[in-house]
Amino acid sequence: MTQQWWPSPAKLNLFLYIIGQRPNGYHDLQTLFQFVDYGDSLSFNVRDDSAIVLTTPTDGVADEDNLVVRAARLLQAHAGVSQGAEISLQKRIPMGGGLGGGSSNAATVLIALNALWQCSLCDTELAQLGVTLGADVPVFVMGHAAFAEGIGEILQPVEPEEKWYLIAHPGVTIPTPLIFGDPELTRNTPKRTVNVLLDTPYANDCEPIARKRFYEVEQLLSWLLEYAPSRLTGTGACVFAEFDTESAARQVLDKMPTWSRGFVAQGVNISPLHHFREVWLRTAGKA
Asked: Same structural domain for residues 150 and 52?
């Protein structure tokens, strides 16, 4: 059988508001997640023993700390699986960019190995496992664009417009704790209903801090705003500009400053991972 690569898509936070902070330091959010048709890929070979082997280690990240390995071991233990897996990762999503790469990788591992190991867990169960790995993992597991509350794990499916995006990286990495720990971060944005938020111009409460602390983010956003509505995604460092057509996005991509890099992708409300799983299940005769 030819090697199969399971999608691990990037996400955007189309808006992100911080409405409070918990005693444990976590922040209560209201955010809108949408996937894009661009991301990493993972392949899997099932092993007869219980070893979890990552054949493509990530520089600077020990295997024990890698979300790919942690997700595999979590599912293995939860489902009582005696098999193992060799996992390869093709990385395209910038690390530390606010595009959810690590969380998406973890979700793809949970979805793929649940199928390959025949664990028979539903997506809701996998999402409950995933939240122990990170607050963004459940939305990737559930596979539908969502309005999220809590720390990002309380999900309500929504259908935002599937626009085209120029997603740009300013060449810096922003540690999430740096943004959430800034004393000037807005933490009291009023809580609103999803219908009100969807009809209100989108914004990101983390953006002023990222622009203040990182000149490169400020510079890139100021440049993009000359062409289209543009915002930070997550806590950064990536920013994105929205367009109605692919050609309009690519025209601006061609003009990007040489010190930054970017790509064009379409927003999608159903995750490419879930489309792939449907085809895999039909091909494997399990659907």
From this structure: yes
